[in-house]
């Protein structure tokens, strides 16, 4: 499946945490910045990206706490860092239960 069509499918099948964070980020609601969701970067599709700030936000579920998930995340983060992006990761449960804290963390990452 082509990356762009797969990204489109991921947007349609977003997790509840991704949907809630997208509501906060979309339409320049957050700090006046333009974010995109499920955006292709090289071989990867990132959850959220702000191109002007070179910031990637990944919303992680429990599979990311498994050894294989951690290895994949490390490789992905290394690739994105090499491409000039800063990568921050937040857990699904943080987005669902502590949105103010997640937004504060993102805000700090922009400084």
TrEMBL record:
Top-level taxon of the source organism: Bacteria
Q: Where is the DUF559 domain?
A: 2-110
Question: CDD domains recorded for this chain?
Answer: Endonuclease_DUF559 (cd01038)
Q: Pfam families from the entry? A: DUF559
Which SUPFAM superfamilies does the protein's record reference?
A: Restriction endonuclease-like (SSF52980)
UniProt keywords (A-Z) are: Endonuclease, Hydrolase, Nuclease
InterPro entries in alphabetical order: DUF559, Endonuclease_DUF559_bact, Restrct_endonuc-II-like
GO molecular function terms listed in the Swiss-Prot or TrEMBL record = endonuclease activity
Among PANTHER family, the record links this protein to: BLL0828 PROTEIN (PTHR38590)
The name under which this protein is listed is: Endonuclease domain-containing protein
């Amino acid at each position: 499946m082509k990356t762009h069509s797969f990204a489109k499918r991921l947007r349609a099948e977003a997790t509840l945490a991704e949907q809630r964070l997208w509501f906060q980020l979309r339409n320049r609601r957050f700090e006046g910045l333009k974010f995109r969701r499920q955006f292709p970067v090289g071989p990867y599709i990132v959850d959220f990206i702000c191109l002007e700030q070179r910031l990637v936000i990944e919303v992680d579920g429990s599979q990311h706490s498994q050894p294989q998930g951690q290895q994949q995340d490390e490789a992905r983060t290394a690739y994105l860092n090499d491409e000039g992006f800063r990568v921050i990761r937040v857990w699904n449960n943080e987005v669902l239960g502590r949105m103010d804290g997640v937004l504060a963390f993102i805000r700090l990452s922009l400084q």
